[in-house]
Design brief:
Layout: H1 4-7, H2 10-13, E1 24-31, H3 35-46, E2 51-54, E3 70-71, H4 79-86, H5 88-112, E4 119-127, H6 133-145, E5 151-153, E6 164-173, H7 176-189, E7 193-195, E8 200-206, E9 209-214, E10 218-226, E11 243-254, E12 263-266, E13 272-279, E14 282-293, H8 304-314, E15 319-331, E16 337-340, E17 348-352, H9 358-373, H10 395-414, E18 428-434, E19 437-443, E20 449-452, E21 464-466, E22 471-473, E23 480-482, E24 487-489, E25 498-499
Helix pairs in contact: 3-7, 3-9, 4-5, 5-9
Bound molecules: flavin-adenine dinucleotide.
């Protein structure tokens, strides 16, 4: 199931880039061509740096190509949390950094003449429940104290009544894949190099430089930026102990009606997100929601089913044209990690933990890292210090990470499988035991069998079957594999071992 953005772009379908075919030397090697890596490559090539951008799959084909594409500093009800946890200056700087990112993105689009369906929109966070009114009011008060002037409204463009909504003006939306295409054109024009279908396996420091290893070739670089979404190098950095992944779902519908403007997200449970998008001359409505921790079991009715139900409630004659999902990294303190990969690895950088708001945060991250390479101070860098060692406030998620790791690394591997081969229906999967060994089985709709070793190639957790997407998902760190064992999502980058049962 491909997103609206990925399904309709020849840039992605006809991927015209080569994979790496020789050893190279460069000033900056950027690993991962989502919005973060591509933005870094854009800014650095503009400043005259020699850049090489390497991508495991296709440009923007992971989180960025499956996003909702809202460009906003409204990250849920977040500023009251920041103000209470880190103080007024921190909350104000976080807001300014994200507002500045909206301006930066628009500046790139204007300067480079990128046609990416950018439009300014108001962003609303709303509630239809009386019990959430107070939280919205508190957020409004915090923002007003920070000198920002959002509006409290009770009328929106949504097809239902709300109790209260907080409106940020001059936010924006775009088509993220068209934007990435524009950035790639600029990188190539400025003599940068881009390689797709090229997986980086490791990075080693050799004297003052880094060697980036792909399967067959190496890139020697003075600086490396790890823009792989979830950092794939485990030691040092230890990002796998401080982040988890969360999946959300989207549908794009033709409502057969004229739609009002605006981008919306609800504070209620279950939460929904809305925006419009242009498709073949029509305005579609995108509806998002169905969030759950990646790797946790979920059903069709709690994910796409929930969104379809919401769509039909307000637009009974609507046509569902696209369905897709993706996931994003969330740090335990909800603040991204941006800066040095580790204090013992100078000149190697990371940007991750964008918590489903990576359109602005990736721009903030790119500017911080580019400034560091240029030895320029960045007033927002302190917010995201990647080597921070602060007490973890989110004890619930920390406990979840520890429990999931203990279960998936050890306990579940010892538990007997609760299904046998004959019980697995067609177009479904499960873990069974063959000769005391756990085997992941998927039977396709014709009964063809795919058998994999259901152990994550990242850190060895036992995978779980995802019956909505027909994938093997890792409950520990969120890696995902197709039913045949092909690696789809980071932090793992190797395929699963397979068995021939015929
Ligand atoms: C459902 C959903 C909706 C969202 N909507 C919004 C929104 O409206 N607004 C917003 O601001 N944010 C949104 N986000 C968040 C946003 O999409 C992400 O934060 C952002 O796309 C992350 O970009 P990235 O470049 O870090 O990661 P990615 O786009 O995943 O890019 C990382 C790239 O690295 C590559 N890679 C991985 N490992 C390797 C390797 N070993 N070697 C080489 N390449 C590698 C991958 O193939 C991938 O292309 C949403 C997230 C979700 C889950």
């Amino acid at each position: 199931m491909n997103s609206l953005w990925l399904s309709n772009d020849n840039f992605i379908k006809n991927d015209s880039f080569n994979s790496l075919g020789e050893n190279l030397e460069t000033e900056v090697c950027i690993i991962g061509a989502g919005i973060f890596g591509t933005t870094c490559a854009y800014y650095l090539s503009k400043l005259g740096y020699k850049v090489v951008l390497v991508e495991k799959d296709k440009i923007g084909s992971k989180a960025t190509g499956n996003t909702t594409g809202k460009i906003t500093s409204q990250h849920g009800l977040f500023y009251n949390y920041l103000n209470n946890s880190y103080g007024e200056k921190f909350a104000k700087d976080y807001l300014d950094a994200n507002e500045e990112a909206i301006t930066n993105i628009k500046k790139i689009i204007d300067e480079e003449k990128i046609n990416c369906d950018f439009s300014y929109q108001n962003a609303y966070i709303y509630t239809t429940k009386k019990e959430n009114i107070n939280s919205i009011r508190k957020e409004f008060n915090t923002l007003s104290n920070l000198g920002y002037n959002p509006e409290l409204v009770t009328k929106t463009g949504l097809p239902f009544e709300v109790n209260l909504a907080l409106c940020f003006k001059n936010q924006a939306q775009f088509n993220p894949i068209k934007y990435l295409k524009g950035l790639c054109d600029c990188i190539l024009k400025r003599n940068g190099s881009i390689f797709t279908n090229t997986t980086v396996h490791k990075v080693e420091k050799v004297n003052e430089d880094y060697i980036v290893f792909t399967e067959n070739y190496q890139i020697k670089a003075s600086y490396v930026i790890v823009a792989t979404h979830f950092p794939f190098i485990n030691f040092p950095g230890f990002y796998f102990t401080k982040m988890y992944q969360s999946t959300s779902y989207l549908i794009a519908i033709d409502t057969k009606k004229t739609l009002s403007k605006g981008m919306y997200i609800s504070e209620d449970k279950p939460a929904f997100s809305f925006r419009t998008a242009t498709y073949q001359g029509k305005e579609l409505l995108l509806i998002g929601g169905g969030e759950h921790r990646t790797g946790e079991p979920s059903s069709y009715s709690d994910t796409y089913g929930l969104l379809e139900q919401e769509a039909k409630k307000y637009f009974p004659n609507c046509e569902i044209l696209f369905k897709w999902n993706t996931r994003d990294c969330i740090s335990l303190d909800k603040i991204p990690y941006i800066g040095y990969y580790s204090s013992i690895m100078p000149h190697m950088y990371v940007g991750t933990g964008f918590k489903k708001w990576g359109m602005t945060l990736s721009n903030v991250a790119s500017n911080i890292i580019v400034d560091s390479i240029c030895k320029k101070e960045n007033k927002f860098a302190y917010l995201f210090n990647s080597s921070r060692l602060k007490p973890i406030k989110n004890r619930t998620e920390m406990k979840n990470i520890l429990i999931q790791s203990a279960n998936s690394l050890l306990l579940n591997k010892l538990r007997p499988a609760n299904m046998n081969f004959d019980e697995i229906a067609n177009d479904s999967g499960s873990i069974i035991e063959i000769n005391n060994e756990k085997v992941g089985i998927y039977k396709d709709s014709n009964g063809k069998i795919y058998a994999v070793k259901p152990i994550c190639t990242h850190l060895g957790c036992l995978l779980s079957w995802n019956d909505v997407d027909k994938t093997w998902d890792c409950p520990c760190h969120g890696s995902r594999f197709d039913f045949d064992g092909t690696n789809l999502y980071d932090p793992a980058f190797k395929n699963l071992d397979t068995f021939d049962l015929e």
